[in-house]
Amino acid sequence: VFPSLAQAQASVANEVYQELGQPSVFLFCPTEYCSSLCSPNPRQSCYLQTIGQELLPGIGVIWTGPKVVSQELSAVLLEEVEGVLRRRPVIWDNLYANDYDCRRVFLGPYMGRAPGLMSRLHGLLLNPNCELQANFIPIHTLGTWFQSEQRSCALPDHAGMEPEATLGDSQGPQEGSYSPQEALELALHDWVAEINQQTLEPGR
Left (φ > 0), alpha (ψ -120 to 50) or beta: where does 90 sit? Predict the structure, then answer.
């Protein structure tokens, strides 16, 4: 019926989206959802080009970055993906995901994301550790990163920020910038307070 997989997926997604009354949040995960899965690359992928052309503009498209689990996200890559998809992507961030290897638990701060990314995103979802209690630091530091992004967006000169800002810039001490180390220390302080509070509760 359809000349390609991408056209089939877009047609079905569009029909479901319209049948549901075009909800404000409707997400589509493409078969090629990261750069390493694209053939030959995001910009030249016939699949992604078709998805970008055929999918209704109100539908959000999920993207994980250069890889399924991306250590870094750059504004340059997101700009390229936005151009192909004809919309800002929704990042499905697998930085902390351990469902593929439950022997590992990730407790470090949210990092490796260039400053100023929020203006390039339609949304961001965090895929956490499978162990609920292990996600205090990941979610807490994500919140700190998000607050720093909001502050930077509020600065008068934000429009002049270089999209090619390096990932190392996020480590610096500049006013309003995100520091993974400071975010980690803040999260640890609050986590210890939470643990101490729980130990005082009856039955703990």
Answer: beta
Backbone angles phi, psi at 73, to 5 degrees: -130, 125
Distance (Å, whole) CA 143 – CA 140: 5
Residue ranges of domains in the chain, CATH in brackets: 5-154+179-196 (3.20.20.80)
Give the model confidence (pLDDT) of 57-101 as tens digits: 999 999 999 999 999 999 999 999 999 999 999 999 999 999 999
Residues 6+ apart with CB under 8 A from 104: 98
The residues with which 141 forms a beta bridge, in sequence order, are none
Cis peptide leading into residue 3 (ω within 30°): no
How far apart are alpha carbons 192 and 198 in whole angstroms?
10
Residue 138: count of CB within 10 angstroms of its CB: 22
- Give this prediction's pTM: 0.83
